[in-house]
Amino acid sequence: MNRLKINLKILKKEAKKEIEGAKNLKELDEIFRKYLGEKGELRQILHSLEKISKAKKRRAKIGKEVNELKEFLEEKIKDKRSSLAKVTESKEEWVDITIPGKKPSLGHLHPLTQVKREIEEIFQSMGFSVVEGPEVENEWYNFDALNIPKDHPARDMWDTLWLKDKGAKLLLRAHTSPVQIHYMEKNQPPLRIIVPGSVFRHEATDTRHEFQLYQIEGLMVDKEISVAHLKAILAEFFKRFFGKNTAFRLDPDFFPFTEPSFNVSVTCVICGGKGCNLCKKTGWLEMAGAGMVHPNVLKNSGLNPKEWRGWAFGFGLERLAMMKYKIDDIRLFRSGDLRFLNQF
Ligand code: PHE
Predict the structure, then answer these.
(1) Residues 127-180: tens digit of each pLDDT
(2) Which of 55, 116, 229, 234 has the fewest Cβ atoms within 10 Å of its own Cβ atom?
(3) Ligand 1 atom 12 nearest Cα
(4) CA-to-CA distance for 316 and 174, rounded, in angstroms?
(5) Helix or strand or coil: residue 193?
(6) Which of 125, 123, 102, 121 is nearest to 113 (CA)?
(7) Sign of the Cα pseudo-torsion (239, 242, 247, 248, in order)
(8) Distance between CA 12 and CA 99 in Å, rounded?
(9) Checking phi first, is residue 79 left (phi over 0); if not, alpha (psi -120 to 50) or beta?
């Protein structure tokens, strides 16, 4: 019996030391299992007690001591558990279940794509079809068919990017107007189309110019078509696109493929017409070239100019987006800067 008593003493001492030295809750659980668990040391002592001692009284006495030890250890473990929990709480293991979940960041369409789709919808609702054409053109479609003969100074209006080639003079289209010819070659009027697409120019960049940009060409061919139709369509488009009646004006201009020719300007939204850097203090921003389709262009597309008449325009898509969202630098669109893109 004495031996058992000594065992309990040693056990108490050892267990106490282990509990105090536990570094985390996992270790503490192991210590609990070792001494107080189903197969723990205290249980085993109680079992062995049954075998060696028949005397009830003694058994009860030792049993009491084991129970006291059990309570003592339980208390110790409890204390240690709460002090360990406090430490972990202040460390990284602590999980705040009230923090809202992390939202996966979803991508979205580029502002130019959004604006392009919006414009397409507006024109489609007015009976226009959306048509595309090639980005690599030959001289005929980009210039000659559009009434811009070789060696004519008007060619210099488009700072063309030529492709290295073997024989055929190919270029990156400088405007979407060549698609007028492609479409009229294959389709009989009456027709209404818009042509969104990339165009390329050998040009120095600044807040208003880029060497690659989007244009939206418009073409309407029918009998008895006049500038009045052009103005009406433009007015309706601006109203729907900018969401209010927007002042715009047609000024005389020159394009070899339209006669008469205009440029279309809207009030600068940045300064409200007062004059700022973007509109070069004029209060107006040029948005498009336009005019009545030149008879030679109809002829070059296989149509009889005595029978058909039409108008055409060419919008800069970036310009339209800049006006709508008050963006003062065209270079932002292709900068890939998320601080800019995430605003749309
Ligand atoms: N293609 C012309 C340009 O790029 C714009 C334009 C289109 C002008 C249609 C008149 C008619 O400058």
Answers:
(1) 999 999 999 999 999 999 999 988 887 777 788 888 887 677 899 999 999 999
(2) 55
(3) 289
(4) 12
(5) strand
(6) 121
(7) negative
(8) 44
(9) alpha
Residue nearest to atom 9 of ligand 1 (CA): 313
Rg from Cα positions in the chain = 42
Residue type, 191: L
The predicted structure's pLDDT at residue 53: 59
d(CA 179, CA 219): 10
User: pTM value?
Assistant: 0.70
Sequence-distant contacts of 330-335: CB under 8 A, at least 24 apart: 330/205, 330/207, 330/208, 330/209, 330/210, 330/213, 331/205, 331/207, 331/210, 333/110, 333/111, 333/112, 333/210, 334/210, 334/212
- pLDDT at position 288 is 96
Q: Alpha helices of 93-164 — where are they, by DSSP H?
A: 111-125, 139-142
Report residue 99 as tokens.
């923090």
The secondary structure of 15-30 as a DSSP string is HHHHHHH--SHHHHHH
* Cis? peptide before 100, omega within 30° of 0: no
Q: 260: CA distance to ligand 1 center in Å?
A: 12
pLDDT at 190: 97
In testing the pocket of ligand 1, which one of 257, 287, 311, 320 has its CB within 8 Å of the most ligand atoms? Answer: 257
Helix and strand numbers, DSSP H then E, in the chain: 11, 10
Quote the DSSP letter at residue 125.
H
Measured CA to CA, the distance from residue 221 to residue 184 in angstroms comes to 9
Q: Give the range with max mean pLDDT: 73-82, 121-130, 167-176, 203-212.
A: 121-130
State residue 168 phi and psi, 5-degree precision: -65, 130
Whether 36 contacts 73, CB under 8 Å: yes
